[in-house]
Design brief:
The chain is built from 16 helices and 32 strands. The chain has 692 residues and is of the alpha+beta class. The strands form eight sheets. The protein has a nine-stranded antiparallel β-sheet with strand order 1-9-10-11-12-18-16-15-14, with helices on one face. Strands 19-26-27-28-31 form a five-stranded antiparallel β-sheet. The chain starts with 9 loop residues before the first strand and ends in a 6-residue tail after the last strand. Belongs to the glycosyl hydrolase 65 family.
Length: 692
């Protein structure tokens, strides 16, 4: 393996992958690019009408690469440091080193920066020159760009996207300032070391672009630009720290997943900045014809969101605000298909209207609407944040989804149950099926949550919500004791990806351990071995739940065929096809660690735990699990669980907690007080004997 020093969070190689799609990405909440690429993307900036909408290509001045023409016996290395959120390229020649760094600044989110440092290693006095190779041209196939006056030594262009997503809709504006890039950099004969800084600021307004560029210049002049980025990134990593004692490859995969997924999140201190969702390939990808064109799927709500919720509830809230902001588009989708309420699009961009290029998915893969609502339910159970629902539009979304499901069901006189007909389940090898087990189960969960929330908000509960939740059909084979994927499914039929196994987790659909096992046994051998990466993680979680540790590990191991070297970039399918920088697969992988190894389950009454470690894993430390306004440090070994509330919010006040074991033992969780007990199942709940 190409990683030096055994540091699981630093990935170093002496050569780049042959496929440029597998180069690492540098991203923050607003800007993203792949290293050495001549385009970048800005969040929410799409061009193209309806099904042609895609991330607009913004020309990137920072796709430059160093070269040392004529240098003999030079050595190169390329490093992604996940601790500092920085990519670097180093040329080591006799007498000097040249190092280029590239990063998306994590507190100045409209700024990307690159630096080149040449350092003399001997006593020579001759000039040292390196070349900067760049394909940058200040034009775009997606933006009408015009030059403006230079600003503080930076060049300036601005313009709008060419085509709005919906007729008459807005066309986002982009303003970009950048430091001119010379073709050569020379360290003078009397100089020992010199650093050149190259900044690029991109924003939706001229004022913001100039403000960010000026702030970057000031920090660069003080020698603290990179340090300020590292400080902001380190604070995010520290707040979302997950440490594992286990095989090196597993720890490397963990740190790679955390780097790429956390890079996509909004910073903690920018609640007023709208967030534009997370696409399967992240912000760095999504040009026309690539990585699903930067659209947002259930990948965000089902596969990435649960991890983000436990580690960074503020970012989870921003994701939900994206769905609230696109609610009107979802209402239009439902109306156009002849239904009430709101139907979230299979593929979403800026408006919430359906932008999937292939009609069948947008028309039939309707489980997305329940997936969105499940994220809202998980958030509510974990935070009890009433403001989101009472003041910020959350209740209107919940009610609209409930109305959609009621209008989408039909009554079967024969079975005396409600049916949902003509759908595509998560298993996309089948379409136009009736009563997809997953779709119907997630619809049932939507209606149950809507009823619970209405009561909590002291609102009337429509009788049909609970009636339909009780009477919706979820196919079940009484003889074989398993859930057929849909009406008429024959055992042995090939399945594309995780589908029925999702009933056990994350849906937590009521079933016995026998049925849970039968579902896993039925679908594991018939699931496409070259299907998408997130699938095997859900089989792993299922086997961990049943304490089949070797079977769980064998499923988790399958994920490694989707992780490419040397920078741990995931591909959607093990043959390299599909999306790259596949955050969906990374989200599934993280759920194995955060929910599988711990046994965490989010319920209305508490956060359950029931740890299970495959062989070779001895300890898991989660530095900041968020629950009901508390930050919990949780350390789990095979022998012991240790918990401590390290922080509790003041406004609104955090709920006092206690840990309860299945044996009945109770342990108050006071702030700053560590508790420990032998590893056993239990739950964390609001303490009944104490009030905030």
């Amino acid at each position: 393996m190409a990683d030096g020093e055994g540091d699981p969070g630093v990935f170093t190689a002496t050569a780049l992958p042959g496929d440029p799609r597998l180069l690492p990405t540098v991203t923050n909440a607003f800007l993203g690019t792949r290293v050495f690429r001549d385009i970048l993307h800005a969040a929410g900036v799409y061009s193209g009408a309806a099904v042609d909408t895609h991330r607009a290509d913004v020309p990137s001045p920072l796709g430059l690469r160093m070269a040392a023409p004529g240098a003999r016996s030079s050595a190169q290395s390329f490093t992604l440091n996940t601790w500092t959120g920085t990519f670097s390229h180093t040329i080591q020649s006799p007498g000097y080193t040249a190092t280029q760094q590239l990063y998306a600044h994590h507190s100045l989110v409209h700024l990307m920066a690159s630096s080149v440092t040449i350092r003399r290693l001997d006593g020579s006095t001759h000039p040292i020159t390196v070349q900067l190779q760049s394909l940058f041209v200040p034009q775009s196939q997606d933006l009408h760009l015009s030059p403006g006056p230079d600003f503080q030594g930076a060049h300036y262009i601005y313009g709008q996207t060419l085509v709005p997503e919906v007729e008459g809709g807005p066309r986002p504006t982009v303003h970009m300032l950048w430091t001119p890039i010379p073709q050569w950099l020379t360290l003078g004969g009397e100089e020992r070391e010199r650093c050149w800084q190259f900044l690029t600021a991109v924003a939706g307004s001229e004022e913001e672009a100039k403000r960010s560029y000026s702030a970057g210049l000031s920090l660069a002049a003080a020698g603290s630009l990179h340090r300020s980025h590292v400080r902001a990134w380190a604070a995010l990593r520290r707040g979302c720290s997950v440490e594992l004692d286990g095989p090196l490859a597993l720890r490397q995969a963990l740190h790679g997943c955390l780097y790429y997924l956390l890079s996509a999140l909004p910073p903690r201190d920018s609640p007023g900045v709208p967030f534009h969702g997370i696409s399967p390939g992240g912000l760095s990808n999504g040009t026309r014809g690539e990585d699903y064109w930067g659209h947002v799927f259930w990948d965000q709500d089902t596969w990435m969101f649960p991890n983000i919720l436990l580690l960074h509830p503020g970012a989870a809230r921003a994701i939900l605000h994206y769905r609230i902001r696109t609610l009107e588009g979802a209402r239009r989708n439902a109306h156009e298909q002849g239904y009430e309420g709101a139907k979230f699009p299979w593929e979403s961009a800026a408006t919430g209207r359906e932008v999937c290029p292939e009609e069948i998915y947008g028309a039939q893969e309707i489980h997305i609407t329940g997936d969105v609502l499940m994220a809202f339910e998980q958030y509510y159970c974990t935070t009890q944040d009433l403001k989101l629902f009472q003041e910020d539009g959350g209740w209107e979304l919940v009610e609209a989804v409930a109305r959609y499901w009621c209008s989408r069901m039909v009554w079967s006189e024969e079975e005396q149950l409600y049916h949902i007909r003509g759908v595509m389940p998560p298993d996309e090898y089948h379409s136009q099926v009736d009563n997809s087990a997953y779709t119907n189960a997630v619809a049932r969960r939507s209606l149950n949550f809507a009823a619970v929330l209405a009561r909590d908000l002291l609102l009337p509960v429509p009788e049909e919500w609970e009636d339909r939740a009780r009477k919706i059909k979820v196919p079940f084979d009484e003889e074989r004791k398993y859930h057929p994927e849909y009406d008429g499914y024959s055992p042995g039929e090939p399945v594309k990806q995780a589908d029925v196994v999702l009933l056990g987790f994350p849906l937590m659909h009521p079933m016995s351990a026998e049925v849970r096992r039968n579902d896993l046994e039925m679908y594991e051998p018939v699931t496409d071995p070259v299907g998408p990466a997130m699938t095997w993680s859900m089989f792993a979680v299922g086997w961990l739940e049943l304490k089949e540790l070797q079977r769980a590990w064998s499923q988790l191991e399958k994920c490694f065929s989707n992780i490419t070297e040397p920078f741990k970039v995931w591909v959607e399918n093990p043959d390299g096809s599909g999306a790259v920088n596949f955050l969906t697969g990374m989200g599934g992988f993280l759920q194995v660690i955060l929910f599988g190894f711990t046994g965490f389950r989010i319920t209305r009454s508490g956060l359950l735990f029931d740890p299970a470690f495959p062989e070779g894993i001895t300890k898991l430390k989660l530095s900041s699990i968020s629950y009901l306004g508390n930050s919990l440090e949780v350390t789990i070994s095979r022998e012991e669980i240790r918990m401590e509330v390290t922080e509790a919010s003041w406004e609104p006040p955090a709920s006092p907690l206690e840990a309860v074991l299945e044996s009945g033992q109770r342990f108050p969780l006071g702030q700053g007080q560590s508790i420990s007990f032998p590893t056993a199942p239990g739950w964390i709940q609001r303490s009944p004997s104490r009030t905030p």
